[in-house]
Amino acid sequence: MPPDDEEAIIERIARRILEKAGKAERPRVKGYRRLDASTPHGVYVYDKGSGLWLPLPAGGAFKPYRDGFYAVYFDNTRCPACRVYDAVWYAYVELVGRRIPDTEFVVVLCEWFSGRCGSRAAAESFREYGVRASPTTVLLRVEGGEIAGRRDLRGVRGVGELARELEEFRKAYPVR
Description:
The chain is an alpha+beta fold. The protein contains 4 helices and 6 strands; from the N terminus they run αβββαβαββα. The chain folds into 2 domains: 1-29, no CATH class; 31-172, Glutaredoxin. The chain is 32% helix and 25% strand. It has a 6-stranded mixed sheet. The protein starts with a helix and ends with a helix.
């Protein structure tokens, strides 16, 4: 069953449950197949089940929400190199990344770093992680709720190079 059909079924079930409980219908969270210059600025996490990029709730800078590995792509909509890297990033996540266990994929999207950004969470994420070049992919290893390892990949990478970098990083910081 296509993901869109699954989402519609889940939404109908949730509506029925809420109606029976006498509660108002919850707002639908909009997901994106891919993010681009027209996508609202923010912090997005890839949902491996649906294949959608889902916005994280508004708030402060992105904080890893569970132990494991994270690949966080810092993207600027006015960055020509980011448009080139988008083709690599989204293909990698969709074809390979979604099968890698214990690894979350995140995009932090602004117009131009923290200076031109319609999302407080995204702007603060650029500042928190010290990202001043784009595209930048920050690899994180989180253990016990703390960052146990970090590697920054600056510039456009090919699919093979991105896969190799993530695999080397995972080997350098094995799950205990």
